[in-house]
Amino acid sequence: MTTESTSTAATRATRAIRPPAPVPRRRLARSAPRRLRPAAEGPFAAALVAADCAAVLPAATALAPGQRSAALLLQLTVAVVALHARAGLYRPSALGSVRAAAHATLADEVPAVAARLAFLWCAAAALLAARSPDLALAPGALAAAYTLHLASALALRGAVHLRRRRTARDQPGAALVVGAAPAAQRLAALLHQHPEYGVRPVGLVTPADEPDIPPPAGQAPAVPALPVLSSPEDVGRAVIQNGVRDALFVSGADGAPRPDHVALLRRHGCATWLVGGPARVEGRSAPMGRHLWGYSFRLLEPAPEAGGGRAAKRALDVVGAVLLLVAAAPVLLLCAAAVRLADGPGVLFRQERVGEGGRLFTLLKFRTLRPADEREAATRWSVAHDERLGAVGAFLRRTSLDELPQLWNVLRGDMSLVGPRPERPYFVERFSRLHPDYAARHRMPAGLTGLAQVHGLRGDTSIEDRCRFDNHYIDHWSLRQDVRILLRTAAALFRPAGS
After folding, report:
1. How far is residue 72 CA from its own chain's centroid?
2. Ranges for the Bacterial sugar transferase domain (predicted)?
């Protein structure tokens, strides 16, 4: 496990430098503001599954008591969920941060849901008649059960979709619009006029050599003025400050976005989309309803958070955090008691850190000393040799036991067991200016430990080296690599180096 200390050293040879001047607390809040949280895909999919499970209950009222068996209803429910999952009816919206895109409506699902339920009820009736001819479903009962099941399924799924669309309108996902100025401005204005797509443009990424083209004379802009981002530093800062997940590329004359822009935004963890390009790719065409107000769109690169890998990582985090919290419960109690006896009330130390996508969260640690004020806590990076550090605090920091409460952060979803160590907003802003790739560390959840830490890059070590290790870990992530890092971290606890 690691410590909270960091350094602004660019290399190992330049570790000791003068701390930066403190800044007012107001600036800390602006450096990495809380982004609006769009509706998550997991709860949406879970709500649809729950709707499909509950929809079978009204159908049971159309069956006779002997036909109304729990086994039959359970088999129907499992089959419905399995077929819907195979058909992709529980997948998130087409755009990564467009949680309620207008094409994801109930009307698109009606034919598929009706056909599957018809097939499953006919199959269930046939099996029931084969096993118990005296319990065979009459045509009227079969039709009534199917109708009730379909009506309840559509009503419940419709309620879930409606809730999702309202959430997306109220909490849109931040996105960057990339392309030539006139076309990018038009797309940004369109998304501003149609909030039902759940996209909030926060900046325009245009070529650095392209002149700024104002709107025609006498015509008021249709969208509030957006910052024009022409340098990689501007783009990285916008991604962190706004929690950007998606970049919408406006199709140019040749239909191909600039490779350097795609690489830059993908480096920062954004899913990249081509808007207005050809809808047919490799012989396949997108569904008719999949569009942004008439503009077709398709994924250029897979979203970095999509797929089973993220689910497997989260499962490892939850299982690991629960097991470690249970196993370490006696140690946690002893540490808490020692801190309470040595330092008085206030066992836990809470501090704002920057996590995935620039989102702020409250990190937990055992208190090792009391900072003079909030400014010191936010802007002083190392307290390893502070004279206020008592015996208990020094021991907790040397053994990294002060980090144990962060297992609760992992269980809450603020952090992962393995990932880049989170930093305070003040230093995130500073390091992002000093090191071009620092902002790209926020493509993944912050970690309790990481590849940099198991290579000795902890405490007062080079930020440039740690940044390089963190991005290498993200670019080559695997579940097996996470397990190896956890094992190496556990081994390092028996030879603590301190902070």
Report:
1. 38
2. 313-494
At which residue do the structure tokens 């690599």 appear? 481
Question: What are the structure tokens assigned to 210, written together?
Answer: 């392209």
> H helices of 365-438, where?
374-379, 391-399, 406-412, 425-434
Tens digit of each residue's pLDDT (9 = 90 or more) over 147-172: 999 999 999 988 888 887 787 777 78
The SS3 assignment for 415 reads strand
SS3 category, 109: helix
Round to whole Å and give the CA distance between 123 and 100: 34
Q: Are 417 and 316 in contact (CB under 8 A)?
A: yes
**HSE-up of residue 41 (Cα within 13 Å, Cβ side):** 18
Spell out where 118-214 has E strands. Answer: 173-178, 199-205
3-state DSSP assignment of residue 246 = strand
Average pLDDT over the chain, rounded to whole?
76
Radius of gyration of the chain (CA): 27
Q: Is the pTM of this model over 0.85?
A: no
Q: How far apart are CA 135 and CA 130, in angstroms?
A: 9
Domains of the chain: 12-21+308-492 (no CATH), 41-169 (no CATH), 171-299 (3.40.50.720)
Q: Is the pLDDT of residue 180 over 80?
A: yes
Residues 6 or more apart in contact with residue 110 via CB below 8 angstroms: 154
- In this prediction, residue 491 carries a pLDDT of 82
Phi and psi torsions of 187, nearest 5°: -65, -40
Per-residue DSSP letters for 424-471?
Answer: -HHHHHHHHHH-TTSGGGGGS-EEEE-HHHHTT--SS--HHHHHHHHH
378 half-sphere exposure, CB direction, 13 A CA radius? 21
Find, among 457, 488, 486, 469, the residue nearest to 5 by Cα.
457
Helix, strand, coil: what percent of the chain each, to 5? 50, 10, 40
Q: In whole angstroms, give the CA distance from residue 33 to residue 202.
A: 13
Structure token pair of residue 487? 């094992």
